[in-house]
Amino acid sequence: MSKIAAWLPFLIFGLFVGIGAGVYYAVNIDPRIVTDVSPDQLSEPDKLNYLIALSLGYSRDRRIENAALRLLNLGKEWQDIADAACELTQSGYAGTNTGLTAIRAMVELAASQGATGCASALIPSGTATPRPEPTRPPPTPTLPPVPTKTPTLEPAQTEAPPVALTPTPAGEFAVNVVAFCDTRVSGVLEITVREGSGRGIPGVGVAVIWPEGRGQAFTGLKPERDPGYADYVMSSDQAYQLEIPGRSQRSARLEPLPCTAQGGGRSRASYRVIFQRVGG
What is the 3-state secondary structure (H, E, C) of the chain? Predict the structure, then answer.
């Protein structure tokens, strides 16, 4: 028993030396490299870097469908990009040209889907290159119409209640629009793309068009609502039309007009826009 007690300190010392040597080898000599990690498994700082990378990628290739798919794999939404840009602006990340470029790319990508944050006001936008306007031929002069004795009455401006709009069949998808008024949802385009059977279709880009520009809503980012669902917040001073480019006609003009919801609350008109595959 005395021999074991005499060797015990050496055994303990050897054990600690072995453990230390193993840790040093694993950390410094042959560390394990983790591969095949999905984006949603990244740490929060790495997720932020991923948001920066996908925003810069969009600023180069303008492929909104690629950005939407990467965002979906990351488990984030468009508003998360706007919020991240706001945090970077307040942290001093914009103190370099590289940081400014990244934040502007994030603001631009988020804004294309109707998401905004404090960075939109704090960071001045870059100078955009104006698009050349097509040359139009001079108008053909016409004679003024002969005045009639019957005066033309101007239509009275009334606030019409939201109504269902006539479906527009064309191409691969028919468009059906239903307006509604709800104090909980103000001025929102609720978009759904469906198979003929009614099953939602994810991964479809729907163009959102207004007189001064256009954006895009991408289905599949809110699967808990519907695989084919997307939404877009309207500006109060714009009129919008929606289409699936090359696969449907454009919808009627949709405006977020003031409306009165059931119960008397005031809101702005919202619209459910359904693109349904014809004959599928």
Answer: CHHHHHHHHHHHHHHHHHHHHHHHHHHHHCCCCCCCCCHHHCCHHHHHHHHHHHHHHHHHHCCHHHHHHHHHHHCCCHHHHHHHHHHHHHCCHHHCHHHHHHHHHHHHHHHCCCCCCCHHHHCCCCCCCCCCCCCCCCCCCCCCCCCCCCCCCCCCCCCCCCCECCCECCCCEEEEEEEECECCECCEEEEEEECCCCCECCCCEEEEEECCEEEEEECCCCCCCCCCEEEEECCCCCCEEEECCCCCCCCCCECCCEEECCCCCEEECEEEEEEEECCC
